[in-house]
UniProtKB/TrEMBL annotation:
Gene3D superfamilies given in the database record: GSPII I/J protein-like (3.10.610.10), gspk-gspi-gspj complex like domains (2.10.70.20)
Family statement: Belongs to the GSP J family.
Gene that specifies this protein: gspJ
InterPro entries: N_methyl_site, Pilin-like, T2SS_protein-GspJ, T2SS_protein_J
Lineage of source species: Bacteria, Pseudomonadati, Pseudomonadota, Gammaproteobacteria, Vibrionales
UniProt keyword annotations, A-Z: Cell inner membrane, Cell membrane, Membrane, Methylation, Transmembrane, Transmembrane helix
Membrane topology: Single-pass membrane protein
Name of the protein this chain belongs to: Type II secretion system protein J
Length: 215
């Protein structure tokens, strides 16, 4: 009677190691694809939020600058300024150029809010953030602190030019007179240079003792 040797089939060590290596490469590939998808999604969300912030900032600025008025105002209870539009380096403690003016058209139905429909606003840069400053009234006192609202991060510089009689100029000292237009340039970390141009009420207010507004 012959004995038949029964052989047991299985995986060799080399086959096991090869399978592990294949599974490991597949896992690495899946992980890289997953990480890429997650990173792409984060970048998309970041870009979307940044774009929303930019759009919101431009809407706020457009509302202010398009409603600019030819009106005198007082700062901290001092005499009324003859400049209807102020802009200079370090104005409003800005780390760049600051700007201040009066705007109208800010609806206050039935005077429900503690402010007027004509208010004084300003813009400045602090810590690479564009900030909007708003006083409740054009003629404020030193006891009234303005409201400060950051509207856009990553803004490193603000510059202003105005259109005079014939050309664009970088300063405006003409008393009781508004220029024809204003050009704002924002230097941003994400979008580079952004430029906005607004037409202004090119008016000259009557001097003290007289009446009327000239065009």
């Amino acid at each position: 009677m012959s004995l038949r040797t029964k052989q047991t089939k299985g995986f060799t060590l080399i086959e096991v190691l090869l399978a592990l290596a294949i599974f490991g490469m597949i896992a690495i590939g899946v992980q890289q694809v997953f990480s890429g998808v997650v990173k792409s999604n984060e970048q998309t969300q970041e870009a979307s939020e940044s774009l929303k912030t930019l759009q919101r900032a431009l809407i706020i600025m457009d509302s202010d600058f398009r409603q600019m008025l030819a009106r005198q105002y007082r700062n901290g209870g001092e005499d009324a300024e003859e400049k209807l539009l102020e802009f200079s380096e370090n104005l409003l403690d800005s780390e760049s150029l600051g700007i201040r003016f009066v705007r109208g058209g800010w609806i206050n139905p039935q005077q429900l809010f503690p402010r007027g429909e004509v208010v004084k606003v300003g813009y400045r840069i602090q810590d690479d953030t564009l900030e909007r400053i708003r006083w409740m009234y054009p003629d404020d006192s030193s006891a009234n602190e303005p409201a400060v609202m950051p509207i856009m991060d990553g803004v490193t510089d603000l510059s202003v030019e105005v259109l005079g009689e014939e050309s664009w100029v970088k300063s405006w000292d003409t008393p009781l007179t508004m220029p024809k237009a204003i050009r704002l340039k924002l230097e941003t970390e994400r979008y580079g240079e952004l430029t906005r141009i607004y037409m202004l009420p090119a008016q000259t207010l009557a001097a003290a003792g007289s009446s009327g507004v000239t065009q």
